[in-house]
Request: fold
Amino acid sequence: MSDIPQSFSAKIGEVELQLTSHPQLFSPRRVDAGTLAMLKCVTFEPHDKVLDLGCGCGVVGVYAARLLAVENVFLTDSDPIAVEVAKANAAANGVAGVSVTLSNGFHDFHETGFTRILSNPPYHTDFSVAKHFIMKGFNRLQIGGELIFVTKRDKWYRNKLQAIFGGAKSQQVDGYVVTSATKRRDTYAKKR
Reply:
């Protein structure tokens, strides 16, 4: 596989994006169908503070920043190539003011108070990454904030979100499962 960046355009809702990706990143030639399915389930509100967790080339964060104040949008990824590509995509789409951070999950990222954390996690690997995203993501949300995942695995994600948040909902969209949970208290749900 070549290391030549791939350029493509995408229309998400009414927002046109011009994007570049890299062959070493997930879905390097187009916006992943799972990401598009997740975004069909999300309506951003003007006051939202959004985290694109595991941002890859930055599709979710750049899209959110086109709808919100750029200072309220944050992107993180553990891959330095993803971080550089996401920064370039933010600049190319007029939202260079977003924060893009190199971090393995939440290890090197300390921002809090999010109303929405969105992720297309690496669900074909073991669940340690997803478990970290869920448990630490809970702590970074404000009360009423929502954690949203897109995967093809409903049961494990729904059960883990229910255990931490005290409830979760899943919906099938275009062959993917979009699972979300809302933070209703400052502590993990009690075990029953």
